[in-house]
Amino acid sequence: MEEKLNKLKTSLDKTLYKDINFEEQLQNNTITKLRNRRSEKRRYKPLFALITVVAVAFILFFSFDISTLHRNSANLGDEVKSNEMIGNESINYLIVMTREAEPSILLININYKTNGVKYIPIYHKLYVENTFFENLMTAQDIEKALSIEVEKEFVLHDHEIGNYIENQQDIQVENEFDFTHGDSQFNEGVVTLNTAEKFVDFTSMRVQDPRGHNGRNMRVATVLEELFKQEDFYSIILKKEIDKFDEVLLSGSNLKLDEQITIEDQYINGNYSEKINKENLVMLQKSFK
User: Fold this and answer.
1) DSSP of the chain, one letter per residue?
2) 56, 137, 200, 277: least buried by Cβ within 10 Å?
3) Per residue in 174-204, pLDDT tens?
């Protein structure tokens, strides 16, 4: 700009303004102001850049913090449930073995501190005190009828488990008496279940058993006890990761019937069902709490 002013002055000296004298001081003041203005611009540029960097960093920090908070809030329910399970000494599994006839339903309690595993059969028609519950086949139904909490519910198909045994690993179980069912013959003593057909025949027989469906449920529990000892059973059939409660089952703990709880036969208007009175209900709630 100073150079331009000098050129302007030189140009004017060649025109009609050649005899006009510029005030030297005014010219110098103008040039000084221009120099100061350029200096101020240079000085403010780094300051502006610094402010910009701080503002961007500030925005990025709070954006990250808010997004992290959002993710944590989204998973809060899962974390609370997981922490509650970790704090429990025992939990309940509901196993529903589906088949063409009546399903086999077992409520299994696992205690990782005592390494104890127990079960009771659940009947899909059940009187709890004087209230009738029909089609008790889900965790929600069981919780409502018995006022207990079920951590996991597994709906298993006997043919699917049979195929697993045939393709993965056979099992040996104790059989209490001779019987024939379907195309399979089972002798008293240790029997090997190595085909899907044998598994289904062994766990579905009910009529020939003097204990009826209770005997069938006991055979189902015997088979499950052996299957729980196989890690593949959790990933392939139960479709879950092994946790500390499953490790109790993996260790080979016996799956025992809780015999202190009595569930009686109930016949009303020609309909067959089961019933549990108040005293046994209280014992069940304490045992499977």
Assistant:
1) -HHHHHHHHHHHHTTTTTTPPPPHHHHHHHHHHHHHHHHHHHHHHHHHHHHHHHHHHHHHHHHHHHHHHHHHHHTHHHHHHHHHHHH-SEEEEEEEEE-SSSPEEEEEEEETTTTEEEEEE--SEEEETTEEEE---SHHHHHHHH----SEEEEEEHHHHHHHHHHT--EEEEE-S-EEETTEEE-SEEEEE-SHHHHHHHHH--TTSTTTHHHHHHHHHHHHHHHTT-HHIIIIII-----HHHHHHHTT--EEE-TTS--EEEEETTEEEEEE-HHHHHHHHHHT-
2) 56
3) 999 999 999 999 999 999 999 999 999 999 9
